[in-house]
Design a protein that fits this description.
The complex is a heterodimer.
Chain A: H1 3-6, H2 8-48, H3 66-72, H4 75-108, E1 112-113, E2 116-117, H5 123-131, H6 138-149, H7 156-163, H8 178-203, H9 207-215, H10 220-231, H11 233-247, H12 251-257, H13 271-280, H14 285-309
Antiparallel strand pairs in A: 1-2
Helix pairs in contact in A: 4-8, 4-11, 5-8, 6-12, 9-10, 11-14, 13-14
Chain B: H1 2-54, H2 59-63, H3 77-85, H4 88-119, H5 125-134, H6 140-153, H7 160-185, H8 189-196, H9 201-212, H10 214-229, H11 233-238, H12 249-263, H13 266-300
Helix pairs in contact in B: 1-13, 3-13, 4-7, 4-10, 4-12, 5-7, 7-10, 8-9, 10-13, 12-13
Classes of the chains: A mainly alpha, B mainly alpha.
Transmembrane segments (chain A): 20-43, 86-108, 128-149, 179-200, 221-243, 285-307
Membrane topology (chain A): Multi-pass membrane protein
Family (chain A): Belongs to the binding-protein-dependent transport system permease family.
């Protein structure tokens, strides 16, 4: 009706133009920022990885796949890849197992009081406490755990061991132990997040499913393995992918916490740390980018594989 | 009616008899599970509490052989040293400024792009959406080297402008991904009614759609504030040692950590750590519900 004022054709056209003007004006800045600072570096990284750029020469020389050939013979690179493999296997498994156990207790572990399943007493308090480490900066957590892990009797853990008469353990200085010690910190920090995540998944399951099963005589273990687990499988899968991607990072923790940044003797080094060090300490930008490309393909392969392998038929409820 | 109530009564009887048997099962299992829950709670609270206590200790007490002992006295001087001498106060204010500005622009640009992508059909819409979302799949370490040189090319290394622009750009993929889904769930009728009444596209967005999207905006704002506050990699790459007075909190803490060994000021280190933890603790206690839903929002979607 309003269009009638200006005449049908002109009104339509100007309304359309205005819409396009609006779309462009709203997209221009975010898109420009994103393309300049995110997309263009990602694309450049692939090119730089094929050069011998050291930062000083204006024109980096194209050297094909030489950097990647060198990577194959680079012991430190393989050490880092092995560490990612270990982190990828152990970290999600431990974190998810602990988180599932706690979230089951907090949501359904309180027994069948009057035929209704409830969480254990104090569930809300535990959820609040468990989640807290998640809001702390990884760098802060790293510094904090340095005091916990100190190798002599002054460390908190070794103080505890001394109290029961055991000698001090070099948590971060023992090459066989250091990576596990760092992994424990990741688990410490992330369990609370997954407790909350899985709790959300469990609370979405209708209560009568559990109550019907409990009435039919299903025990706690049946309730957990036959009902809860299949019904929150989607959420577990999301958690798995998140933790797997986190296993390819660990930069801040290793950089702050480990002995000699990735030591002792490269026992804790990870690819992100090597990329950072190769680029900003040794100025080998081409080689660092090649590591970045390798890291990218590792991450993508993991994500694609895990989505494929863990796919299950979705259970509607 | 009478025949109908009969089966219910019958069904109720086994429930009552089953009660005590299940209760005893709860007893053993319940006790064990409570032990596990309490142990984990101690594991979480213990290290943090210990840090607070250690900030009041003397150097000798910390380096001594009884790391678990309580401090002999409550001496606040280490807090003063960490605040002024180790510049923690400055790092914290720097971080408040950087994170405040960059979260604001992340939310503004993110919701603008998400709104247009969710609500308007135009050529290239899908392509732009996937361009944004693809950013979620790339590890930031892949971009690290070129990113540094892009920022340097603009002459923005060692400046807050550079850090803020990079923070905003790298927060966009998730913000756009989440908010696009969120704007799609909002009813279209209100916005259309406003447009019929002659409200411009821009005004409809700011005065009608933004208030309607408040729950989603709050979740993602929290997500971005925490993510940017805790960022460590980007500051150490973009703010070099030449501009130590511009450093952000995570950098500052890591640096104090390196220096504490040389200067033998361990109480100062723990005071600095406590000071970094305390604001997060307070904010978390006040907003824990929103923070939990904000951080898990992406995973549940």
């Amino acid at each position: 009706m309003r269009r009638g004022d200006v005449g049908p054709a002109g009104g339509l056209l100007s309304a359309k133009m205005r819409t396009y003007g609006f779309i462009v004006s709203f997209l221009a800045i975010p898109l420009a920022l994103y393309v300049v600072f995110v997309i263009s570096p990602y694309i450049q990284a692939f090119y730089i990885s094929l050069t011998n750029w050291k930062g000083i020469s204006a024109n980096p020389r194209y050297i094909g796949f030489e950097n990647f050939g060198r990577l194959l013979d680079d012991e430190v690179f393989w050490a880092a890849v092995r560490h990612h493999g270990l982190l990828l296997l152990a970290m999600p498994l431990i974190t998810i197992a602990i988180a599932l156990f706690f979230s089951f207790l907090l949501n359904l572990g309180g027994g069948t009081g009057g035929g209704r399943l409830t969480g254990v007493w104090g569930a809300r308090f535990y959820r609040v406490v468990y989640f807290f480490p998640q809001v702390l900066a990884v760098a802060v957590v790293g510094v904090l755990f340095q005091a916990i892990y100190r190798p002599d009797g002054t460390g908190v853990l070794n103080g505890l061991l001394a109290a029961v008469g055991l000698g001090p353990v070099g948590w971060l200085t023992d090459t066989g132990l250091a990576l596990w010690a760092i992994m424990a910190v990741v688990v410490w920090q992330s369990v609370g997040f997954y407790v909350v995540l899985f709790s959300a998944g469990m609370s979405a399951i209708p209560r009568d499913v559990f109550e019907a099963a409990a009435l039919d005589g299903a025990g706690r273990f049946r309730l957990f393995f036959s009902i809860t687990l299949p019904l929150i499988w989607d959420t577990i899968q999301v958690g798995w992918v998140y933790l797997g991607i986190a296993a390819f990072d660990c930069f801040a923790l290793v950089q702050v916490l480990s002995v000699d940044r990735g030591g002792p003797d490269n026992a804790t080094t990870v690819l992100p740390l090597e990329i950072w060090r190769t680029a900003f300490t040794f100025s080998k930008f081409g080689y660092a980018s090649a590591m970045g490309v390798a890291l990218f393909f590792l991450t993508i392969t993991f994500a694609a594989l895990s989505l494929r392998v863990t796919r299950r038929e979705r259970i509607e409820f | 009616m009478a025949t109908r109530t009969e089966p219910v009564r019958v069904a109720k009887t086994p429930r009552v008899t089953a009660g005590p048997r299940q209760r005893s099962g709860v007893g053993v299992f319940g006790a064990l599970s409570h032990v596990a829950l309490v142990v984990w709670a101690i594991l979480v609270i213990g290290p943090i509490l210990w840090t607070f206590l250690a900030s009041f200790k003397t150097n000798a007490e910390i380096v001594g052989d009884a790391p678990l002992a309580l401090p002999s006295g409550y001496d606040w001087s280490s807090w003063g040293r960490a605040w002024s001498k180790a510049h923690l106060g400055r790092y914290m204010l720097n971080t408040v400024f950087v994170v405040g500005v960059s979260t604001f622009f992340t939310m503004l640009f993110g919701s603008m792009a998400a709104y247009v992508l969710a609500r308007y059909r135009f050529w290239g819409n899908r392509a732009i959406y996937f361009l944004f979302v693809s950013g979620l799949a790339f590890p930031v370490f892949l971009a690290l080297v070129p990113l540094f040189f892009v920022v340097k090319g603009f002459g923005l290394t060692d400046t807050y402008t550079g850090v803020i622009l990079v923070y905003v750009a790298y927060s966009l993929p998730f913000t756009v991904f989440f908010l696009t889904a969120f704007f799609k769930t909002l009813p279209t009728s209100v916005g259309e009614a406003a447009m019929m009444d002659g409200c411009s596209h821009t005004r409809t967005f700011f005065q009608i759609m933004m208030p309607m999207a408040k729950p989603g905006l709050i979740s993602i704002t929290i997500f971005n504030i925490l993510g940017q506050w805790n960022q460590y990699l980007l500051p150490i790459v973009l703010l070099s040692g030449n501009v130590e007075d511009k450093w952000l909190i995570t950098q500052g803490i890591a640096n104090i950590n390196t220096n504490a060994g040389y200067e033998a000021d361990w109480p100062g280190l723990f005071a600095a750590l406590s000071m970094a933890i305390l604001p997060m603790l307070i904010v978390y206690i006040i907003f824990q519900r929103q923070i939990q839903s904000g951080l898990t929002a992406g995973a549940v979607k």
